[in-house]
């Protein structure tokens, strides 16, 4: 029986007296690759920040690896790649190695000093993402794509069971984007890493993810991409033409049920 | 006069000893302050120091002992204004800065105007530092540096990306509180070296100089410490030989370091 990694039941969140999320319920199982999609302002980022403990829900139940968020302390089991492109200070005086090592802090007790084994873990993550040659470069002097890989290495350095990524490919060119998706696919298939990927790229992500979670302040759809394309509920969201384009780009084109 | 003669003076020995430790504290905190865009917290807290010094002089007490708790309370005030009231950092600093200055002027007025003592704190008087002040400066500077070293990785993580740091289980509220309290302590100590009006210079300039030169975080911290110590010790020497105000000399030497670092960066 697969482990439930994240479970939400009737979860609601309000910010500045505005309902951002209402009555959201879904479960993420071990090994799932979830594409979290929805229009701008639909609450995608709020949803993942709630999972990460950065925001507190107004009501509803949330569990992480079967534990209540207040009692959950094993944050090293979760890797997080924030929406960061272009926001790194070009003068930030830290090397790639130093930045990736920050990912290990969640596993350490005060005073969180790094040892030889940590150095090896950092180097392994750099090799995995093919950026070992950049290890001593200042992070601010790298290209956007290289910075994104460094931040992914930081998220992966603990070998997390759950990886949460917030629009990681929004500033990447198509070639880099495909390579990035390839890395995630490899992690999901070979390491069985559970992935929640926030994206606007519904059409492309369909061929990689096992499930789509579509929210627009409330849950609109949760299921496989195939079911997403078949669902009549989806047509009003995109219009018939856009839905056709999205689903046609999938490896196994499907037409909506009439 | 040779360097040996210069070092022979007890007041020079005291100034160098106290100044070097305070300079290292400034460098340890300054790099984080600059990168977190909190550079002007030194200015704001220095203005708060002005009111506490005026109060201490009015009451006939030691400015250092009166200032430490008051300035720490002001630092917590800035933190709460940003965290709870959601004011922007610069606005919160502005509020405390204005309050500190206004209260200081009010107290000075009640005491019959500005006197020589108050001026010495405004412009710094490291050459007149007492034995007791040197010992206190060394102890407090060591506390600052040990605390920064203990929370070093947490501080780097919060400075680089606060959201991810929080998501990895780092308690940002606790670390930020410790950080502003250490800054308050350092500001109070630094007023003796360069004066209330130039405190923020010793926090900012060695840090921005180091950021121009270094590639890694650890090298940046070391370079900032080196720049701060060198500027304070050479500032004391230059001001002594040429009969110049010590605080201003230290700051101008820091400016030369910064300009040189900028030039070096442009050329490489």
Report what the structure shows.
The complex is a heterodimer of chains A (258) and B (268). Chain A has helices at residues 44-51, 96-101, 116-128, 144-156, 174-190, 202-205, 225-230, 235-238, 240-248; strands at residues 4-15, 18-29, 33-37, 59-64, 78-81, 162-166, 194-198, 211-215, 219-223. Chain A has 258 residues and is of the alpha/beta class. Chain A has one domain (4-223): Rossmann fold (3-Layer(aba) Sandwich), CATH 3.40.50.300. In chain A, a hairpin with a 2-residue loop joins strand 1 and strand 2 (18-29). With 268 residues, chain B is mostly helical. The radius of gyration of chain B is 18 Å and the shape is globular. The mean pLDDT of chain B is 93. The A-B interface holds A 52-54, 73, 75-76, 78, 80, 82, 84, 89, 91-95, 98-99, 101-103, 105-106, 108, 110-114, 136-138, 154 and B 31, 35, 149-154, 156-157, 160-161, 163-170, 210-212, 214-220.
Tell me the β content of chain A: 15-25%
CATH topology of chain B: ABC transporter involved in vitamin B12 uptake, BtuC
End-to-end separation of chain B in angstroms reads 39 Å
Name the shape of chain B in a single word.
globular
SSE class of chain A: alpha/beta
Summarize the main sheet of chain A: 6 strands, mixed
């Amino acid at each position: 029986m697969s482990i439930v990694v994240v479970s939400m039941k009737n979860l609601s969140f309000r910010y500045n007296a505005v309902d951002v999320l209402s009555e959201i319920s879904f479960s993420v199982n071990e090994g799932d690759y979830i594409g979290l999609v929805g229009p701008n302002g639909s609450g995608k980022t709020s949803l993942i920040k709630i999972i990460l403990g950065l925001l507190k829900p107004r009501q509803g139940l949330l569990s992480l690896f079967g534990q209540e968020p207040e009692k959950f302390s094993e944050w090293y089991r979760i890797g997080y790649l924030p929406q960061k492109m272009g926001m790194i200070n070009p003068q930030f005086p830290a090397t790639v190695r130093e930045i990736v090592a920050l990912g290990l802090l969640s596993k350490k007790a005060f005073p969180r000093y790094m040892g030889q084994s940590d150095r090896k873990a950092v180097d392994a993550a750099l090799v995995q993402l093919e950026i070992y040659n950049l290890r001593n470069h200042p992070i601010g002097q790298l290209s956007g794509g290289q910075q994104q890989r460094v931040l992914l290495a930081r998220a992966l350095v603990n070998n997390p069971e759950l990886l949460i990524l917030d629009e990681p490919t929004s500033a990447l060119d198509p070639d880099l984007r495909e390579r990035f998706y390839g890395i995630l696919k490899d992690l999901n298939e070979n390491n069985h890493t559970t992935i929640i990927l926030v994206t606007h790229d519904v059409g492309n992500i369909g061929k990689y993810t096992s499930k789509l979670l579509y929210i627009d302040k409330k849950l609109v759809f949760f299921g496989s991409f195939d079911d997403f394309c078949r669902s009549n509920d989806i047509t009003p969201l995109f219009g018939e033409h856009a839905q056709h384009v999205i689903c046609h780009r999938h490896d196994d084109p499907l037409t909506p049920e009439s | 006069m040779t360097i040996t003669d210069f070092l022979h003076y007890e007041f020079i020995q005291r100034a160098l000893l106290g100044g070097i430790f305070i300079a290292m504290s400034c460098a340890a905190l300054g790099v984080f302050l600059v990168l977190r865009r909190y550079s002007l917290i030194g200015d704001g807290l220095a203005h708060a120091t002005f009111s506490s010094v005026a109060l201490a002089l009015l009451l006939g007490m030691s400015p250092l002992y009166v200032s430490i708790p008051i300035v720490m309370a002001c630092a917590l005030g800035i933190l709460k204004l940003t965290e709870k009231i959601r004011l922007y950092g610069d606005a919160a600093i502005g509020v405390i800065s204005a309050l500190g200055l206004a209260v200081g002027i009010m107290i000075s007025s009640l005491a019959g105007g500005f006197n020589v003592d108050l001026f010495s704190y405004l412009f710094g008087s490291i050459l007149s530092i007492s034995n007791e002040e040197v010992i206190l400066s060394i102890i407090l500077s060591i506390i600052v540096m040990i605390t920064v070293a203990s929370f070093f990785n947490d501080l780097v993580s919060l400075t680089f990306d606060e959201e991810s740091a929080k998501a990895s289980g780092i308690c940002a509220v606790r670390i930020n509180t410790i950080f502003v309290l250490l800054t308050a302590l350092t500001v109070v100590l630094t007023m003796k070296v360069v004066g209330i009006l130039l405190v923020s210079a010793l926090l900012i300039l060695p840090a921005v100089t180091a950021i121009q030169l270094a590639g890694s975080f650890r090298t940046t911290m070391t370079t900032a410490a080196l720049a701060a110590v060198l500027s304070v010790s050479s500032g004391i020497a230059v001001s002594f030989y040429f009969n110049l105000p010590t605080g201003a000399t230290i700051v101008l030497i820091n400016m030369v370091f910064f300009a040189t670092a900028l030039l070096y960066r442009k050329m490489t």
